[in-house]
Amino acid sequence: MSIKMPAISNAFLWRRVHSLMGFWLVLFLFEHLTVNSQAALWIGDDGHLFVKLVNLLESLPYLQVVEIILIGIPLALHAVWGIKRALSAKINLGKSDGSSPSLAYARNRAYTWQRLSSWILLVGILAHVVQMRFLDYPKKVMKDNQWQYLVGIDFDEGLYSLSNRLQVTLYSSQQISEMMDRNSLGDEKESVLDSPNSTEYIPSKEVEVQQAQKLHQEEKWLKKLASFSLKENQVVAVCSKPGIAVLLNVRDTFKSPVMMVLYTLFVLAAAFHACNGFWTFLITWGVILSIRAQRAMVSISILGMVLLSFLGLAAIWGSYWVNLRY
């Protein structure tokens, strides 16, 4: 006689997927905040390690595909089920007249904060991705057969010395306009690059082609430079390494007290949500079952929250005001 096993419900499967994706995102958050902290953690080194790590990440082949598969998809899967759970959550932490439960226990508070932090993270992650990955992401263009990275930033006195140390060239809107006028990019120019291809090697043409290619790259570089809509107090920073461009972008973001406060709230919510979620993950998958083990894991989770908060806040409060102001 065979025993028929009950079917696994979709809700059960979704909870497991949500839990696994959350665990993966906790690991990513530790990596992400560790990299970001290097912009300010070692005072006086001008974010050297941050630049090195970003350069390494940017050198990965098919980076956008990797980001979508390893970050975008897990984030989307975790968010879909997380929104569903947040919408159905019943907050029972406050005072009650007796018609509804009021449970002011530590784990019940953690449950409430987990749901509230999820809404902060939903808004914060969307804003963070739009700002850092699209609106303020460095533009890339070839010049003199070398990639150049361009980013628009607000000017301040500290950039005079900092740009020299980081080997960054700054361009104001007036400089860009004058360069455009001198090069008359609006005129159509005939180039040897547009001539029909020949199978015959002509030594004298090699220099001509190389010069034409150089002029072509300079024209594209100037057009990219002119594509920035600069305000009166803004400049375009040009450098040869993506890590330096991103570092300047981070510095520029955290010059603003408003952005510092918003990102502080964002990081604290992420630190709590990640480490409290990790505690739940260990219970969900049967890693910690006894009350004693669960209580011990609470202390470890709190240490994780403190560490994540420190790494995130180091970048927010130290990038401009401590390490890279001058």
Level of helix content? 55-70%
**CATH class of the largest domain, please?**
Mainly Alpha
Could you give the count of β-strands? 4
Mean pLDDT: 90
Rounded to the nearest angstrom, the distance between the terminal CA atoms is 80 Å
Task: Please give the structural blueprint.
Blueprint: H1 10-37, H2 48-58, H3 63-88, H4 106-135, E1 139-143, E2 146-154, H5 159-165, E3 169-171, H6 173-183, H7 203-226, E4 234-239, H8 242-253, H9 257-284, H10 291-323
Antiparallel strand pairs: 1-2, 2-4, 3-4
Task: Please give a structural write-up.
Helix content is 64%, strand content 7%. With 326 residues, it is an alpha+beta fold. The protein has 2 domains: 10-137 and 253-323, Up-down Bundle (3 helical TM bundles of succinate and fumarate reductases); 139-185 and 211-251, no CATH class. It has a 4-stranded antiparallel β-sheet, sandwiched between helices. The longest helix has 33 residues, at 291-323.
Brief overview, please?
With 326 residues, the chain is of the alpha+beta class. The chain has a four-stranded antiparallel beta sheet with strand order 1-2-4-3, sandwiched between helices.
List keywords for this structure.
alpha+beta, 326 residues, 3 helical TM bundles of succinate and fumarate reductases, 4 strands, four-stranded antiparallel beta sheet, 10 helices
